[in-house]
## 1
Amino acid sequence: MLDDFILRAALAGLGVALAAAPLGCFVVWRRMAYFGDATSHAAILGVALALATELPIFAGVLAVALAMALLVTTLSERQVNSDALLGVLAHAALALGLVAVSLIEGVRVDLESYLFGEILAVTVQDLVVIWTGAGLVLALLVWRWQALLTSTLSPDLATASGISPRREQLILTLALAVTVAVAIKVVGALLIAAMLIIPAAAARPFARTPEAMAALAVAVGTLSALGGLAGAFAFDTPAGPSIVTMAAALFAISAALSPLLKRS
Amino acid sequence: MSLIETHGLHLAYGGRTVLRDVNISIARGEIVTVVGPNGSGKSSLLRALIGAIPPAQGHVTRAKGLRIGYVPQSLSIDSTLPLTVARFLNLPSRVPAAEALAALSDAGVPELAERQLGALSGGQFQRVLLARALLQAPDILILDEATQGLDQPGAARFYQQIEAVRQARGCAVLMVSHDLHVVMAASDRVLCLNGHVCCEGTPQVVADAPEYRALFGTGTQGALALYRHDHDHDHHDHDCAHEEAS
């Protein structure tokens, strides 16, 4: 059954949507959009590392994404206004990664597949990695949900209740790195941040509680993955960008409907 | 056995000392108020007590398993985060729905449960913050200018509720406030802060202390006169005299 490449692609997209959508809600709530950019762009550097050391791509990307996420966390703790700094890191990581990949001798690398994903080439092994990673991210979020929400709302309220906002931030950092590592095959390094932010943003107008927003974001993410794949087949377009285009279309519909919602 | 103690506590932001050598102790069931001019380190002291600011020197000791109900000065809710009042009351621990509703009723705002937190007025928001803090069954309530955004009758009701909560649950209360005469009437003990603890004691002792008079000058003398006055004649001129503070 799993030898059908369309089915494998759909399952891969579903796995990424399941992890990225609820995590993306926190990215949106905590205004960490650039944080997502920096971490996912660093994935290309991880690809270079994996190719140079003959590690699995997943492991290389996970290591570099984690290092980048920790670096960004540390820097943004020290500096209140870190917007520009995050922008610098996001683009520097991407450029450095591209340069590093080109320097690796003897390997002919299809860069495009890492930048935009190659969901149609997902193997059963990839699926195991994707679903394990997605399961881990979901488990982390469910386990820490109350504490994460409290420290997102106010670090001081969290601290007063014995929650360490720093530890919760690290948990999100870890979840983000894992998501980047499993999503690179599906949508590619350039568009991972889109799968985090767009479903959450599309879900916002229709949600009254954080849980409803996360659930709706999962629905939007799932619909984007499946709809985008279908579109890619119908119009012979690249799959990763088609998935993100579908998500953006859903966001546009949501944004158009939200004023009607407020009036009623 | 005290709930929270500080020993030689120094606090600093970016190398600048904001509080030095603070030695205080809060006992179970007492109401302690922190007063002091703007920038005197009042909020910093509270944040150090809850553990949000690490001491530059000295240390803060909290009783084992101490439950703190913290009501911050303000809370900005990001517009991307949907949150009903009812959901907010369940953070960080879930509470039974009936209890949450009862807490809102106690705070005088039972109709707010399904409203979005970001859409509340300042006064409603403060009461919801208090209701949440109480729901987590605190040993000590720590309030940072909790009556900001409340009108005078609202502030009076707020303090009455705090007194009632203390009576009912025996929790200690530590608060920063600018409503000087209300504070003076409602507190067991007053800490006057200005970069350090310049005086402390019962409201009467602090009000008579030269350090306190030097800080608050004649305006406060007026408020204190009013406070004493209040005890002789209820309601006299109460609202007019405090319009500016509310």
## 2
Amino acid sequence: MNAPILSRRRFLSASLVAGGGLLFDLNIPLAGAAEGAPQILTAFVRILPDNRVIIGAKNAEIGQGAKTMLPMLIAEELDVDWAQVTIEQTHADQKIFGGQTAGGSRTTPREWLPTRKAGAAARAMLVAAAAQIWGVAPATLKTGSGKVSDPASGKSISYAALAAAAAQQPAPDPATLTLKDPRDFRIIGQSIGGVDTPAIVAGKPLFGIDFKLPGMLYAVLETCPAFGGTFKSANLDEVKALPGVAHVLTIKGDGTPESLFDGVAILSTSWWSANQAREALKVEWDMGAVSGFSTEGYAAQAAQRLKGKADGDIVRAGDVDAAFAAAAKTVSAEYDYPFLAHGTLEPQNCTALFKDGAIEIWAPTQNPESGRGLVAKALNLPPDKIRINFTRIGGGFGRRLMNDYMVQAAAIAAQLPGVPVKLLFSRQQDMQRDFYRPAGWHGFRAALDKTGKLTAFHDHFVTFGKDGKPVRSAEMPATEIPAGLIDTVLLEQSFLATNMPTGWLRAPGSNALAFVTQAFLDEVAQAAGKDLPTLMLELLGEPRDLPRGPNAPPFVTGRARGVIEKVVAMSGWADRGQLPKGRGKGFAFYYSHMGYFAEVLEVALVDGMPKVATVWVAGDVGSQIINPMNALHQAQGSVIEGLGQALAGQKITQVAGAVEQANFDTHPLQRIPDTPQIIVEFVKTDYPPTGMGEPALPPVIPALVNALHAATGKRIRTLPIVPEMFA
Amino acid sequence: MAISLKVNGQTRSVEADPAKPLLWALREDLDMVGTKFGCGAGLCGACTVHIDGNPARACQTPIGEAQGMAITTIEAVAKSDAGKRISDAWVKLDVPQCGYCQAGQIMSATALLATTPDPSDEDIDAAMMGNLCRCSTYVRIRAAIKDAARAGAKA
């Protein structure tokens, strides 16, 4: 078994926090706890006098299931029944809780050991307490269902009855804790519904937008339609005089999308009234140079750049020119994809209360500590004067890794001390003030020898950058397959300038790079007279570990092979030649977020547009699926979202520096009739479990376009797919 | 001005502009935040409520026009037989991911089941295609509606 994906230092830091709760290094008062008050065992676990167990969920819940999954890990090792457990969202404080970012599908690999150890440490202290009371050796005692029992004497005692004594026990050294054998898991590996599901179904207030404080005012914030425009003047007095308007404030920005642009905030006791008043607001903006950016301009520049020399190398291996000169056959093609918005269904919002030189924030954020830093800077406040509370999040997808809404709410609240303020974006603002998945253009070439072997691969990637570096989420790794699998590779890049804020959209980078690389390799495979699974298996070669840098686990070719072989078997790939005319199957493989996914998709044209019938998904995320039902849901959602990026018509375009799309009519999502059959199977391998939030998404897009080629003979090299492509 | 609304069987008075959408009256004036704001344009279905038993977009319904009509929201949908079966099926199949759209999904699904006890896939598509789910829980939405229909057939 490979070492867990945690550096020793990181593990120690996490376990110190987890163990710190047990050690009472956090000075949690226990001895003086009032009669009947909860006995606090660790920062994560409280045991109530009636033996109910409160487990803190420390990460934001964005629909990825972390609020259920992390407490499952603790409950398992604490050895309580799930029915005893109540889950509470913690607030945001990395000093207490360790990492709380919900992103990159990292929660599972990061928490798999430390969070279980937190549960195991609590259990060890309870056992030690019982052993002391009964005068027996701890190793002779058993636990289960929130009780310690002594098989020799038949005695048993509830955790609640032990809590106070357990609190006096020395905390065990995390290094000496034994975790359960997976064969003894009773909670991990069970399908457990979302902890908030009953409350969601009952319409209870859970989300950031639902949070209210007495005397709260609602705010809308108008900013320049072109990113980076600055405030000149506005009819502020006119707007102030409108019915229902409580305040009109100008907000001075620092000119960065991550923090604050200049803006005008309108506040009212009703968001609807504030937003109505916004229609009467007339602002003169100084656009400066930002109005020069447009989608048309980018496309023209990219076409030009692809004809010329790149700005720089990402990776260069072997003699590329010689390999192409010696090739028996070459394949070349250009691919591109557009900017995309996140479109979380809950628009961006944040509630803030500034009082006595401190601010309290209630935020749907995936990344609270980054927000704390930005708010501290914007308001010139010490970070410890900022308290951040999590709310449930109506969709993350990477949008809420950014904290612009938090800084904006804080900046407005800071002007109104003592008044709680809720900032809420309209849908138009949400779509036009996003951090977009960057567009990109790729000029590919591949060289084949006379046996059909891929001998050289070249990608000139035109992306967005500044000062010789890609902007956020616009980079391509040097290990982009087939780099690392063949000897002669050139990945190089050129940069376009933009004022578009860019950011991470579910499976960032991968959601675009999988499309272009696996679709082009499908073209290469066909030129070589084989299918893509065969080409991929040839490229992967013998099972071996390929290093991916100091902070990432190696790419294990055997795991890739495993999911490819699995999906080929699941999907009847070998029999695809028997499909009726007009139907086709396509394949793709992609490795992202530590997950290995191979997918096959069957498609046909219906009324001139692709209709996906079935998607087969084979995934390897390690030795254990923690919550099988949620893993399946994540895979289904990823597949449909990926199909939406290709088929729904999603494309963010820019004119004069501003985004054109304003709502779901022009940036649509998949709807229920577009839902295919999705068949998911996991290949279990002896590696630590990794996350399911993202890695099932990337391969579905190339699998789709490869299937469309099989079905129609048309090769799709541009997204989104539109009917004209099949005309 | 005072507008009288009949929400979940109770008559409630709202002091607001008659043009104010029902969505915002529910959320701001009546403190019922289960009905969600998604798009403000009738495109996403997150704000779906029942008005006289029919699914309606609360963001497109001025309160002035909703006076005297029977409004049902997510907070009370489980009081009807169809709503109870839909809500139970939603929990049983763990339909929600982020959960934000689900109030609207449940309202549309309940309205479907109330009129079509045994809906086909086509019936489900037609009734539910106005409700977006950004997490794409559509596989389970379909399954949960069928589960609720079966629960009704057994009863």
